Amino acid sequence: MIACSSQKVKEGKIVKVEVEFDDAITKIKITGDFFLHPEDVLDDIERSLPGLKKDAGFEALVYEIHKIVNLHDAQMIGISPESLALSIQEALK
Fold it and tell me: Which residue range(s) make up the domain with 17?
C-alpha cells in the first residue's frame, strides 16, 4: 500500500511523506520546505526507516530519526524528529 501525508508541523514548515508499507515500512520519501544540514542526512533517515513495523509507534520513529541526526551531528531547521515522526504516523494511518 502507498499512503501520503502533507501537513504543517508545529515548527512552521510543511512536511510531505509518501510511504510504501504492508506490515512494515518498505520505502519512504520525505520532502517539504524545511532545512536539514547536511542535506544528505535526509537520505540516511529514509534508509533507516524501512523494516520498522507499520504500528511501531511514535517513540520508535523518534528514536530512529534522532539516532541518524545525532550520528551526523545534523541541524534540523523548521522541523524536529518528533514532528517528522508525527507526519510519518499520519501517513501510516
Answer: 2-92
Going along the chain, which residue ranges are E strands?
Answer: 2-8, 14-21, 25-32, 35-37, 75-77
- In tens, the pLDDT along 58-86 reads 999 999 999 999 999 999 999 999 999 99
Provide the grid cell at 24. 512494515
85 closest CA partner among 2, 19, 1: 19
Count up the domains in the chain and report the number: 1
Is the pTM higher than 0.85? The answer reads yes
Beta bridge partners of 35: 77
**Type of residue at 60:** A
- φ, ψ of residue 49 to 5 degrees: the values are -85, -30
Q: Give the neighbor-by-neighbor strand order of the sheet with 14-21.
A: 2-8, 14-21, 25-32
For the stretch 18-40, pLDDT in tens is: 999 999 999 999 999 999 999 99
Single-letter code of the amino acid located at 30: I
